[in-house]
Amino acid sequence: MIRIKFFGVRGSLPISGDSYCRYGGKTTCLQITLDNGYSLIVDAGTGIVDLGDQIINKTDPLFIYFTHFHWDHIQGLPFFKPLYIPNQVIHFIANQPVGWNQNIVSQMNGKQFPVCFDQLPSDCLFHQFKSSTLELPPSMNMTAMAANHPGGYTIYKLTVDKQSIAICTDNELLATGPANQSMQDFAQQFNNCDVLIHDCQYLPEEMASKSGWGHSEYRSVCDLAAMANIKQLVLTHHDPCRTDQDIDEIRERINFYIKEKNYSFSITMAYEGLKLHVV
Ligand SMILES: [Zn+2]
Ligand SMILES: [Zn+2]
Q: What is the pLDDT of residues 237-247, one digit of tens each?
């Protein structure tokens, strides 16, 4: 079984207020746990602060995989309490060009945040994805693929026994500019995944003014899920301007679209605290 818990589902900017309570206003962070107890974190948006509070009494090594280094995926890290626990081992992993660790270190350089990274008492280690120094459970296979997103983005696909999930929180499926991947490439990569967690930040009518910003609208994401024979599509990275009611209305539009297209996968709008058990 793969257990997934969402700690932050907002894109771009954290948001708070009565109108955002149900889906939540924290930026991207999720936790994945396997039956053997192995656990990993994907991204360090502001959602990672709550996650840190929940695991503060555990001493197990932590594994944080980064999809990329835009603010909404790293801005919670300086407030992640395990960083301040002496000798706590924290592995930082990314599939980006060498030197990517500076994106993590430089946001704690004394100028943007008072505590410098090299003053931390925890034991922080940086790894290139698939580094031989990182041992993963033998039952787990993890692959990486590029998305269409400015500055580069790593999609992670995780397979454990017969279950597979893919995480793709920032991706412009129908990129109008230079694209790393086509719809067909993505459909092939995600083929038969039990769960696809995908970006759905914009509405179809917004794409004309936001094309090239690296995000998708629901119709192309639903088309992809159908092409790839996905069982459950989880839509995330909600735009910070969307209230709970707005997201409910987008959900209704999606219901209408998938009925019209006769698509059969299930849809979940991600919210803070959402737990999925993939069996
Ligand atoms: Zn993002
Ligand atoms: Zn991004």
A: 999 999 999 99
Topology of domain 2-278, CATH = Metallo-beta-lactamase; Chain A (3.60.15)
Residue 59 C-alpha to ligand 2 middle, in angstroms?
31
pTM over 0.90: yes
Distance in Å, CA 183 to ligand 1 centroid: 20
Q: Which amino acid, 243?
A: T
Computed on alpha carbons and rounded to an integer, the radius of gyration of the chain in Å comes to: 18
Residue with tokens 């790894």: 127
CA pair distance 170, 191, nearest whole angstrom: 19
Would you state the pLDDT for residue 2?
Answer: 97
Q: How far is the CA of 17 from the centre of ligand 2 (A)?
A: 24
- In angstroms, rounded to a whole number, what is the distance separating the alpha carbons of residues 175 and 54? 38
State how far the Cα of 106 lies from the Cα of 12, in Å rounded to an integer: 19
Q: Determine whether 255 is exposed, middle or buried from the number of CB atoms within 10 Å of its CB (0-12, 13-18, 19+).
A: exposed
pLDDT tens string 34-64: 998 999 999 999 999 999 999 999 999 999 9
Give the neighbor-by-neighbor strand order of the sheet with 39-42.
123-128, 89-94, 62-66, 39-42, 29-34, 2-8, 275-278
| Ligand 1 midpoint to CA 232 (Å) | 21
133 pLDDT above the threshold of 80: no
Ion ligand 1: residue ranges with CB closer than 5 A: 11, 72, 170
Name the residue ranges covered by the structural domains of the chain: 2-278
Centre of ligand 2 from the C-alpha of residue 158, in Å: 21
Distance 199 CA to ligand 1 centre (A): 9
Q: Half-sphere exposure of residue 1, counting CA atoms within 13 Å on the CB side?
A: 8
pLDDT digits over 122-131, tens only? 999 999 998 7
Task: Report the SS3 class of residue 83.
Answer: helix
